[in-house]
Write a structure and sequence with these properties.
It is built from 13 helices and 20 strands. With 472 residues, it is of the alpha/beta class. The radius of gyration is 26 Å and the shape is globular.
Length: 472
């Protein structure tokens, strides 16, 4: 318990109290119980009759200091957030938990918005009973999860979790005790898988992890393999952990990625909390990435105006599903960009993947394309005529086009005005060849930038799109 932890999917651990009761076979070899027996935090006892020992005052002060560090820019293992596991020595939704401590805990979560708190429970049937009054659709910095060690105990927990509103839902299949080929992951954002560790570790068939990985792909859920455990099997035989730790000690828990099968060396975190929604009503400076107040996306007349605007903003009711799925699959950041409309002079909030002088977005939800083509109907027609299956929009800004021209050794054409049929002046045979070979579909271009449609289902256009966005 503290600021640093060896748990690979989280950065810190914290507990409002210590003590719990077994809630299924996943608890048979509970490390918290073993640690408590040795350290005697609450007298060394465990179970229904054991006290729930509220942690000391310094423990409650720790997250406040972590918040200060997070505000200063410190991030953890995923390079984006500071993740704190709340309750690794207890169950937050244990009915025997201390009532006052739980109330103080929710207040602590509210006071530390730059920390991301993860709660993992085996008692999701009690979650609604103990949520704070202002929970509503969930705190933005709190993720809810359940342990799923087998089908009998785990599947009902997933169903119960699905009924609870939350910013993000996750499940921990650790210790994974059996195959779960029919696990239902609708509404689940993240799955952590791991074999059991310790001298009494139960067998963990590596194929079980592959099955869950496949199910994650089916449901666009992020997969994280934590460890192979102390008794991994492959094809019915013990799986040998050849690599030792840097200290020279044996990898007894199977935590080294070098010991994972190559196809399972996957430790990814979900991206959803990086979707930044602005307030519903606010004064918004029109500053997009790139430094120029308008970033070259406005009409010449509009460019002469001030670089700030005030407007009533309505965050999108939902993020386009394909765009969110694409961001997760390729580990990109999906953000809500404030975009100044050159026609209406309103400021829109647009879901976009923001890259180096480029955007990946949904063609039906991006006002830039509407402005250039003139109407939503024109956008719809252009997309239909492109014959791109599952289209996403790639916008390359002028700076990116200039870099691209230097890299490939010839000048890309500049286009004035719009039109959806394709380049009006294909003044480069190499340019036409690029379009033909890559599967990209040109939509429209201007002095500000160029728009292309690509398909996440088409390997060639997808690969080229990702390559183009990374040219620096």
């Amino acid at each position: 318990m503290g600021e640093f932890t060896k748990i690979s999917w989280v950065d810190s651990t914290w507990n409002p109290w210590i003590g719990c009761t077994h809630a299924g076979p996943g608890c048979d070899h509970c490390y918290a119980e073993a640690q408590n027996k040795f350290r005697k935090w609450n007298g060394g006892t465990w179970g229904d009759k054991a006290p729930r020992q509220v942690t000391a005052t310094p423990t409650w002060h720790d997250p406040v200091s972590w918040e200060d560090k997070a505000c200063a820019g410190r991030v953890g293992k995923d390079g984006q957030r500071w993740l704190v596991f709340a309750g690794d020595l207890c169950d937050i939704f244990d009915r025997l938990g201390d009532k006052d401590a739980r109330i103080r805990m929710w207040e602590l979560f509210r006071q530390t918005p730059h920390l991301t708190w993860l709660i993992l429970t085996k008692r999701p049937q009690h979650i609604a009973e103990f949520l704070p009054a202002d929970w509503d659709t969930g705190y933005r910095n709190v993720w809810l999860g359940v342990t799923v060690e087998n089908r009998k105990n785990g599947y009902p927990r997933i169903e119960a979790l699905r009924r609870i509103p939350a910013t993000l839902r996750f499940i921990s299949c650790e210790p994974l005790l059996e195959n779960m080929p029919d696990i239902e992951l609708t509404g689940i954002d993240w799955v952590i898988v791991g074999g059991e560790s310790g001298s009494e570790a139960r067998p963990f068939d590596i194929e079980w992890a592959r099955v869950i990985k496949g199910r994650c792909q089916d449901f666009s859920t992020v997969f994280f393999l934590k460890q192979l455990g102390g008794a991994p099997l492959q094809d019915g035989s013990p799986f040998k952990l050849d690599h030792c730790k840097s200290s020279g000690w044996r990898d007894s828990h199977g935590v080294l990625l070098e010991n994972f099968p190559p196809d399972l060396r996957i430790q990814r975190w979900p991206m959803r909390e990086r979707i930044h929604l602005l307030e519903t009503t606010s004064a918004v400076p029109v500053l997009l990435p790139g430094g120029d107040p308008t970033n070259g996306l406005l009409s010449p007349a509009r460019k002469q105006e001030s670089g700030t605007a005030t407007s009533k903003l309505s965050p999108p009711k939902e993020i386009p599903g394909r765009l969110e799925r694409f961001a997760r699959e390729h580990e990109l950041v999906l953000e809500i960009e404030d975009y100044p409309d050159a026609i209406s002079e309103d400021v829109h909030l647009v879901p976009r993947i923001c890259l180096q002088d480029a955007f990946i977005t949904d063609p039906f939800h991006d006002p830039f394309l509407v402005n250039v083509l003139g109407s939503k109907e024109a956008v719809k027609q252009a997309v239909e005529e492109s014959n791109v299956d599952g289209p996403l929009l790639l916008i390359l800004l002028r700076e990116q086009i200039d870099r691209l021209s230097e890299r490939i050794g010839f000048e890309l054409p500049n286009y004035e005005g719009g039109g959806s049929a394709g380049p009006q002046d294909q003044n480069s045979s190499a340019w036409a060849e690029i379009l033909h070979r890559t599967g990209l579909r040109y939509v429209v271009g201007s002095d500000d930038g160029m728009c292309f449609l690509f398909s996440e289902c088409d390997t060639a256009s997808l690969a080229v799109t990702l390559a183009l966005t990374r040219i620096r």
